[in-house]
Amino acid sequence: MTAVDGLLTVIDMQRVFAEPDSPWATPRYAEAAAGVRRLLPAFGDRVAFTRFVAPAKPEGSWRPYYEQWPFARQPPDARLWDLTDDFADRPGHVVTATTFGKWGPELAQHVGQDGRLVLAGVSTDCCVLSTALAAADAGIEVLVAADACAGVDDDSHAKALYVMDLYRPLIRVTTVAELLEAAAP
Asked: What is the pLDDT of residues 87-142, one digit of tens each?
């Protein structure tokens, strides 16, 4: 298999979104994780994982956000912020951020000015969407692997995919199979 062009960025595949008893559990996390696992070999070492963590001291509109979600006010090394076991030991760059969107200098450095960002992970309607829009605004081609993402619920997932696909050609919603087909020799 040849490598898929671009940087696979696996958004927030963390315990806080995977564990069913978490207030932020993503119901289809396991399905998204299965899609991510299928993609990983096609990208080789061109993979970055992201982690969402709470800031030490929330500022601005983050203050009422964390008043609504006080359980999340834990340090970056708290267990809930860990990548799940199936991704924790994978080689690859890890970007940790206190923001929904993960696009910034760290990812930009790995993608390059004329690069491609392939997104997978959770939650489609929050961190994936925020990352996709910021990268597209920076002039980066963005592909979103719909079946390697999951939202807070099916309706929100579908709506977020619809909105992102409105940004064609800057953002294109695709599937794991389409990405792997592109990598076939």
From this structure: 998 877 899 999 999 999 999 999 987 789 999 999 999 999 999 999 999 999 99
pTM beyond 0.90, yes or no: yes
Q: Which two tokens stand for residue 27?
A: 């119901």
Structure tokens at 101: 């969107």
Q: Would you say 141 and 113 are in contact if contact means Cβ atoms under 8 Å apart?
A: no
Over the stretch 20-67, which tens digit does the pLDDT of each residue have? Answer: 999 999 999 999 999 999 999 999 889 999 999 999 999 999 999 999
Edge-first strand order for the sheet with 141-150 is 93-97, 47-52, 7-11, 116-122, 141-150, 171-174
Site of tokens 């200098």 = 105
- Judge contact between 175 and 147, C-beta under 8 A: yes
Task: Indicate the Cα dihedral angle 161, 163, 164, 170, nearest 10°.
Answer: 150
In a 3-state reduction of DSSP, which class is residue 74? coil
